[in-house]
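Page 42, continued from yesterday. The earlier attempt failed because a stray header line got pasted into the input along with the sequence. Redoing it now with the clean sequence only.
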Amino acid sequence: MGITRNGLVLGATAVTLSTIAVTTLGIHSQGQALFKNDPKGLIDEVWQIVDHSYVDGTFNKLDWQNVRREYLSKSYSSNLEAYKSIREMLKKLNDPYTRFMNPEEFKSLQVDTSGELTGIGITIGQDEKTKKLTVIAPIEDTPAFKAGLLAKDIITKINGKSTEGMDTNVAVSLIRGEAGTSVNLTINRNNQQKDFKITRAKIEIHPVKYSQQKTPIGNVGYIRLNQFSANAGKEMQNAITNLENKQVVGYVLDLRNNPGGLLFASVEIAKMWLDKGTIVSTRERQGNGDREIADGHPLTNKQLVILVDKGSASASEILSGALQDNKRAELVGTRTFGKGLVQSVRPLEDGSGMAVTIAKYYTPLNHDINKRGIEPDVKVELTDAQRQNLWLHERDKIGTLQDPQFAKAVEVLGKEIAAKGNTNAQK
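This time it went through. Structure tokens are written below.
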């Protein structure tokens, strides 16, 4: 299994409630169902995809052959009845990231390469431990972000309807809607209930923002990466090139509140910073895997510090884990979200689709970060109130010395630059 532009999806970006639901569409050959063009054929097609590709060879300790017999023995009068059975069948795997999408839901998954999305702008998923509907991260500058939603918020109600036991796709259909309309979300945060009325909008996302910041150690290149979208690599390359021309002394890469995105984008960007070494490895159920390795053509060798927090997920964890394990960068902030699953998205016969977990990914030092996250080298904790104040009400302070985590990153960067200088002087 190779890490390519098409075909691998990170489980952390479970559902982005704008237009994009995961990261990229892997168009794979469809299962050879025994029943063609009927509801049973659809069920058999889904069963075969799971049977062939699912990461857990025990199928959550199920007799998967018996599951097939159970669902094919029933009678179905429509595809809608088949959809219900497919969701029941997949639920038995106890994996919130292996899921079925009806044609409308599958269409909403399509990546709009222009970068314009429609919705409220959050990434959500079902917490694997609590099974609660959880915000992975709000996308910066979107309605959800401006309303004050935070990573790890638990969505308990949507328009007054309880989300207890609710399928993620159902939650998506309730939250998604036309620009200009609104949705009411009830959030549990630190055992306190909060209500949010959020107006949906068209959202234009530019994944990279950068600037030159004056600091006590000199001019520092500050790059904020919001999302690993299709054009993130190109924008990152442009940012590094421009800041190199300005001769910055070093870099702070901000991955806070970055919910992830395209797997290939994280690899592409890692190569811009890393001269040599493994970036990420993936492992399928048979133990087979693949590694991505730096190609020896970094855009800069200057010292780097990365900012992370609990909203840094999936592709953000691949990038930060790769650079931390290879001792290319130090991480400052708080523990990351902790999602290490890879999915493949498959189209089905009738225009519906499914996402199936096919592998786990590991950092270069073979750390499995799923449910664990990545610990920073230097911990700088902000309270939820501090985070909300900084990201919502004092946005101009983000990436400046008035941003406590950025200030610490600059301090760490200064020590790294000094240590590198001493090492060079000794040679």
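Notes: The longest strand covers residues 353-362.
Reminder to self: strip header lines before submitting.
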